[in-house]
Design brief:
It is a single chain. With 121 residues, the protein is of the alpha+beta class. The chain has helices at residues 4-14, 30-45; strands spanning 53-62, 65-71, 82-88, 109-113. 22% of the residues lie in helices and 24% in strands.
Length: 121
């Protein structure tokens, strides 16, 4: 349990930030989320190669990795739509990575490989 002074200090430290980093990330509209869900399902049902690299763009970074947006059409015929996928911090470079921001920034073009699709979310 915090003292009143500690509680006031914590509240002051978080005020003005809009509730944390989640709100700072790009948000998708309802229609865009539906289109992305359809693209995820189509990709999960297709026989894409997990060895194929495609170009993506970093749309956000977090402590544990970066989210890259890529076009599913480059993974196989009959696929369409853009998806955001997580590139875990351990996959950003061959050696140990101290911070995601040391390797990539929002807007960077990156080569990504889709290893796994979780259609259930």
């Amino acid at each position: 349990m915090r003292s009143e002074a500690a509680e006031a200090e914590a509240k002051a430290a978080t005020s003005g930030r809009g509730g944390g980093r989640r709100r700072e990330r790009p948000q998708r509209s309802g229609a865009d989320r539906a289109a992305q869900a359809a693209a995820i399902n189509a990709l999960a049902e297709s026989s894409f190669s997990d060895e194929t690299f495609v170009e993506g763009e970093v749309v956000s970074t977090l402590d544990f990795g970066a989210f890259a947006r890529f076009d599913t059409a480059s993974l196989g015929e009959g696929l369409e739509g853009e998806l955001d996928g997580l590139v875990h911090i351990s996959a950003l470079q061959a050696q140990r990575t101290g911070s995601v921001s040391d390797v990539v920034s929002v807007g960077d073009k990156v080569q990504v490989r889709v290893k796994q699709v979780d259609a259930k979310g």
